Amino acid sequence: MMAKRSRANRRTDTGWLDHLVNVEDRIHRQQEWLKSHGQPLVTFTVKIPNNIDNTALSHTIFDQGIEALYNACTERDWTVTTRQILYKPTGPEAIFVIDTPSASLLKAAMIKIEHSHKLGQLMDLNVTDTDGHTISRAGCQMPRRKCLVCGRDKDIFDHSHHHGLKEHISKVKEIASSV
Ligand SMILES: [Zn+2]
After folding, report:
1. Pfam families in the record, alphabetically (predicted)?
2. Residues 152-171 pLDDT 10s
3. pTM (2 decimals)?
4. How many A from CA of 31 to the centre of ligand 1?
5. CB–CB of 46/58 below 8 Å?
């Protein structure tokens, strides 16, 4: 445990194992909350390259995303039943339990943030319904997200579609500089 913590403190050493542990933690928490609250969840992470995780930039995106989520709920008379915010070596993440009549409407509201907020392209707001299923964009008749760098449709089967980390980081910084 101590070994892990000291490793986690070194920001540049956030490797695939940390991400794997992180995902397992998150799935466990999601399942517990679905059982105890019986309401849809939003899992929020910041979409920036690993090696700039936990910088002031990722916290700015994160804080603004949380604010946007609360505003979206207030506008629709939904309430945040509970939430957990974690600042992890892999970047900040939050899980919200939302008292809403519909997970699909919740997904549509989150997509709206991803599209309309000035930092929305750098936010990942995933919705899980009360049965534990992730609500997809297709399920809401919404198009897939575009590639952050070139704006093309992102096809996971298109292995030729790669951009270098440098290109990715400079695009993230360009979006962030608009704030
Ligand atoms: Zn691209």
Report:
1. CitX
2. 876 655 666 778 888 888 88
3. 0.81
4. 34
5. yes
